[in-house]
Specification:
Elements (H helix, E strand, L loop, with lengths): L4 H18 L2 E7 L3 H12 L4 E5 L17 E5 L3 H7 L4 E4 L2 E5 H14 L3 E4 L1 E11 L2 E11 H5 L7 E10 L6 H9 L19 H10 L2 E4 L2 E3 L1 H8 L9 H19 L1
Helix pairs in contact: 2-4, 2-9, 7-8, 7-9
Protein name: Thiamine thiazole synthase
Catalytic activity: hydrogen sulfide + glycine + NAD(+) = ADP-5-ethyl-4-methylthiazole-2-carboxylate + nicotinamide + 3 H2O + H(+)
Keywords: Glycosyltransferase, Iron, Metal-binding, NAD, Thiamine biosynthesis, Transferase
Length: 263
């Protein structure tokens, strides 16, 4: 077989064009391909919903790849073991309800399962703004404004594109970027005790893991928070290299969104 460079290029351009066009109107748009959003994407795909994850970096996975201080092992507690087993990630028991997983295997497996379930991950794409509409006279997040990450990084004056979503999920981790956008640009109050992004507290794994799951939910009409973005928005502790709360947060968000969309 003779390989033709132009044919290869055309194939890639056509395939990506088809993919992007199909994702300009979705049920759920998730920002950030960390573990919480990828687990959410997995369950949303399984539920038959149309979802897309926008990841600003080259590799999806967030901070999961590096384990704890670059020891590429991560911990998970018994509460989230059923998710790990469903996804097919290998683990080793460490006693007292703790388990460890190879961070590279765990991250790559979750990425693969998310995509195979039907949720597309578009890497190197960043959300620069939100679309908003009025519902009963009140603003509601109704989609995202997206651009190539290198364009934003280089501060090039290139206009972005808009896409619609019934719901948007902020899974940007510690920055809680989308929550900050909403409060700044819409001058809106979030569903937090201050109405703003409160900011995360210092590390306390026990409370942080609980807080992550409890505060997963709708923080503003049309906008949900998961994982560390939930901790940041509502002012909870961080939890370090244990990931059960992240996984449970993603599943909780997917279950809530599936129920609302299918009503």
């Amino acid at each position: 077989m003779r390989l033709d460079d132009v044919t290869i290029s055309k194939s890639i351009i056509t395939a990506y064009q088809e993919k992007l066009l199909s994702l300009l109107k979705v049920d759920v748009a998730l920002v950030g391909a960390g573990p919480a959003n990828m687990v959410a994407g997995y369950y949303l795909g399984k539920a038959g919903l149309k979802a897309v994850i926008f990841e600003s970096k080259l590799a999806p996975g967030g901070g999961m790849w590096g384990g704890g201080m670059m020891f590429n092992e991560i911990a998970v507690q018994n509460d989230a073991l059923h998710i790990i087993e469903e996804l097919g990630v290998g683990y080793k028991p460490r006693g007292d309800g703790y388990f460890t997983m190879d961070s590279v295997e765990a991250t790559s497996t979750i990425i693969s399962q998310c995509v195979k379930a039907g949720t597309t991950i578009l890497n190197l794409v960043t959300a620069t703004d939100v679309l908003f509409r009025e519902e009963e006279g009140k603003p509601r997040v109704a989609g995202l404004v997206i651009n190539w990450s290198p364009v934003e990084k280089l501060e090039l004056h290139v206009d972005p594109l808009g896409m619609e979503a019934t719901y948007v999920v902020d899974g940007t981790g510690h920055p809680a970027d989308i929550c900050h956008l909403v409060t700044r640009k819409l001058e809106a109050r979030l569903n937090t005790r201050t109405g703003n992004v409160i900011g995360e507290m210092p590390l306390w794994a026990d409370k942080g893991e609980q807080f992550t799951v409890v505060n997963t939910g709708e923080v503003f009409p049309g906008l949900y928070v998961v994982g560390m973005a939930a901790n940041n928005a509502f002012g909870g502790p961080r939890m370090g290299p244990i990931f059960g709360g992240m996984l449970l947060s993603g599943k909780k968000a997917a279950d809530m969104l599936s129920e609302k969309i299918k009503q």
